[in-house]
Design goal:
This protein is mainly beta. It has helices at 145-154, 183-192, and strands spanning 2-9, 12-17, 22-25, 29-31, 39-47, 50-56, 64-66, 69-70, 74-79, 83-86, 89-96, 100-103, 127-130, 142-144. The protein is built from two helices and 14 strands. A hairpin with a 2-residue loop joins β7 and β8. The radius of gyration is 22 Å and the shape is globular. The chain binds zinc ion. Zinc ion binds next to loops. Zinc ion (ZN) binds at residues 131, 133, 139, 141, 160, 162-163, 165.
C-alpha cells in the first residue's frame, strides 16, 4: 500500500506520493530538508492501521490539530483519511488500498497459507494476491491470483469476505468539511428573513 498526502492548492485538492520521510511545510508542501516550522512526516508500512507517522516538534504543539483534536507533541500515527490541520492549512493522509500482487513463498508468508477462495494449499512460487483491507480494517488474506481475478471479473459485487474490501472501488479522495458559517453568512441569512 502506497502512502500519499492530499493538500489544498488554489482551491483544488491534490495528492502527492509520500515515498520517503520528508518535511511538511506550510500549505502542505513537502520539502527534502527541514525549514521554518516544518514537521517530519514519514510513510510507514501499514502498522496498526497507520499509513504515516508525523513528528510534532514541541514548539508546534498547540498549533497542530489531528481529526479535530489538539495533537500532543511527539510522534503521531496517521491512518488512512486522517486530517491534520496546522494554523490555517491542512493535509489528509491516504493509503491507497491496492491489492499486493506477488509470488507465494513459505518463508515470507504464512507457511500453512491456503487460498481464501479455493481453500487450496499454496505452492512455493505460485502467483498470489493479498487483500489490502480497508480503512480501519487491516486484512492480508491470501488468494490465488487466478481465483481472485476470476471472482473479481465474474461478480460485480464481489467483496473480500474477511474485510469487505471492494476491488472495484475508486481511488479515495478527501471530502473537506463544509466551512463553518461566518458572521457574514449569518447576516446574509438575516437579510433573507421576511420583514414583519
Ligand atoms: Zn480482505
Amino acid at each position: 500500500m502506497a502512502t500519499s498526502i492530499w493538500f489544498e492548492h488554489d482551491g483544488a485538492l491534490t495528492p502527492q506520493a509520500l515515498a520517503a520521510p520528508r518535511w511538511l511545510a506550510a500549505g502542505g508542501r513537502l520539502l527534502d530538508e527541514p525549514g521554518f516550522d516544518t514537521l517530519l512526516i514519514a510513510p510507514v508500512r501499514r502498522y496498526e492501521g497507520a499509513v504515516a507517522a508525523l513528528l510534532v516538534p514541541d514548539d508546534l504543539r498547540g498549533r497542530v490539530v489531528h481529526n479535530g483534536m489538539p495533537a500532543e507533541g511527539g510522534l503521531l500515527p496517521l491512518r488512512h483519511a486522517d486530517h491534520v490541520q496546522i494554523d490555517d492549512w491542512s493535509i489528509w493522509t491516504a493509503g491507497e488500498f491496492i491489492p499486493e500482487e506477488t509470488a507465494y513463498s513459505p518463508t515470507t508468508h504464512d507457511q500453512e497459507a491456503r487460498c481464501f477462495i479455493t481453500k487450496a494449499r499454496l505452492r512455493d512460487g505460485e502467483l498470489i494476491t493479498i487483500c489490502p483491507g480497508q480503512a480501519g480494517k487491516p486484512c492480508g488474506m491470501v488468494y490465488k491470483r487466478a481465483a481472485w481475478t476470476t471472482v473479481v471479473a465474474a461478480a460485480a459485487k464481489f467483496r473480500c469476505p474477511n474485510c469487505g474490501y471492494d476491488p472495484k472501488a475508486g481511488v479515495w479522495s478527501p471530502t473537506p468539511a463544509t466551512p463553518r458559517p461566518t458572521l457574514d453568512h449569518v447576516f446574509e441569512l438575516l437579510k433573507l428573513e421576511p420583514s414583519r
